[in-house]
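Bug report (template v2)

What were you trying to do?
Predict the complex of my protein with pyridoxal-5'-phosphate.

What happened?
Run completed; filing so the output is reviewed.

Input:
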Amino acid sequence: MSRPVPNPGILDIAPYTPGKSPVAEPGRKVFKLSANETPFGPSPHAIAAYKSAADHLEDYPEGTSRVLREAIGRAYGLDPDRIICGAGSDEILNLLAHTYLGPDDEAISTTHGFLVYPIATLANGARNVVAEEKDLTCNVDAILAKVSPKTKIVWLANPNNPTGTYIPFDEVKRLRAGLPGHVVLVLDAAYADYVSRNDYEIGIELVATTDNTVMTHTFSKIHGLAALRIGWMFGPANIVDAVNRIRGPFNVSVPAQLAAVAAIQDSAHVEKSRTHTEAWRNKLTEELTKIGLTVTPSVCNFVLMHFPTTKGKTAAEADAFLTKRGLVLRALGNYNLPHALRMTIGTDEANELVIEGLREFMAQP
Ligand SMILES: *Cc1c(COP(=O)(O)O)cnc(C)c1O
């Protein structure tokens, strides 16, 4: 009997394993520190704008997200015509893959690159080519060595999730300069707002001066609007034109557009989150190192910590130990980092509890 056969590549995608539903000991408060969500929630203005949309749910959205593109344009000094909004940056990344990848093509990502990249690549029948990282950091030479005539996209989260590392803008420019003109370089800036390094840049200059570089960004992280699914890209006219041809005409909902406009205008809310994150990133790195863990230097709103492989001290055991206390971190087996846990920086209370918990865990006989 015949039955439907999925397109080539689809069945090579590892089925998505959702985060576990944490069960803490009775009486423990649960802190979800596994999805890089902000402990501050969105701006109160964004919540108010979201609620105001409830009065007109019968109307379709304006199809191009014009009000949001204009607000993003004002915030970053960009031409709104070069911006596309999407249902999360996930949609934008998938639209880019669909626009430029097909069977026989190749797309390059790095060893511990964001998992959406290989999924978007395979979903379009293309081959996912992995470039080795160095010290859990993108290595430009390794990427350039993987380029072939079939390469169509290079995916680069800068900084990257789940490693928390970044490459300086000079290196990004060297990467662009070394890639053939027909290769789209996608710079995913989901965590850009948390970076406080002089040699980092989000990539606007590169997008504005080339016709093959795209920058993507999201409202899911520092703006705290992950539930509403809003992302965007800034790109050259030729790429914007091509992607817009396959974008669904009403892909961003009215409540999402209005909340995002209010969020991007609330710079005080963003600043509060940035300050809190930086202070705790430093403190967590210092305290966890003292306890005996290895912490990868992070520029994001999370830290990656590495555990010993000795029985009783492993990442899996630490994960179970913390979960009982209501502290839910992210295990990274599906990122091929079985000895590490990723912790999203949470409230003061949550962060203190993790330090205290891990100190006890590591001191156990
Ligand atoms: C969280 C994250 C995003 C944002 O995805 P959305 O679909 O916008 O929620 C994008 N890229 C990376 C690397 C991320 O970690």
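What did the reviewer find?
The chain has two domains: 19-41+268-363, 44-265. The radius of gyration is 21 Å.
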